[in-house]
TrEMBL record:
Protein name, as recorded: DUF4386 family protein
Signal peptide: none
Membrane-spanning parts: 21-39, 59-81, 102-122, 142-167, 174-191, 197-218
Coiled-coil zones: none
Alphabetized UniProt keyword annotations: Membrane, Transmembrane, Transmembrane helix
Origin superkingdom: Bacteria
Amino acid sequence: MVTTSDATAPTTKRAQRFEPCRWSGVVFVLIGVPGFVLGNPTSPYSARADDYVARYAEGAGSAPLGRLLGLGAVIALLWALARLRIVFPPERAGQPAGAIQLAGSLYAASWVGVIVTAAATYTAVDHAESFGGFEVVPETAFVIDFIADGFIWANLVSAAVLVWGIALASRRTGALPGWLCWVGFVLAPLLPVGWMLFMVPALVFYLWFAAIVAIVPVRRSAGA
């Protein structure tokens, strides 16, 4: 006769091997980076307002897909943060646990801000080139685009605090290999000035975040 514990043991083992939340960081990177590129065309800082309008008009076809991917990335990011909340509870990680959750929330909010301002810029461009009705001057798109730049900078700053919190919490709890923690400590101060380094720190952050969410161990209670 198969007991209840014997019947449920294989299911529990399978659940431990396949955890969708474990791959939320990878999903965030795989759809977030293309979404950001498709939804936020870049222009040189010396460009005139008309140049901004023309650049956004060229990317209008891919913008809706970029926004959908961006929103999907935010959902995956929230799942990843929920996993980190389990791994680094305040009673084990101390203050860094609070920093992780606060910075993670701000990071997700800044992602939404980038998506919204990019959508507003495309709307302004569309009206600037439309016939009749309410016509928006090109400078409007120019200004909104700079607001999006502000959200991107906030995104980098909150990512820096998030990385520092994860690295410090990992050192205190031993949840991650030491070298991954040190990568985080080196990466954190570079993120706020990532735009001066051709956004290379941001790309490293995406890979680092996806890796730590996938490999970090989740402690289960005895009755789980």
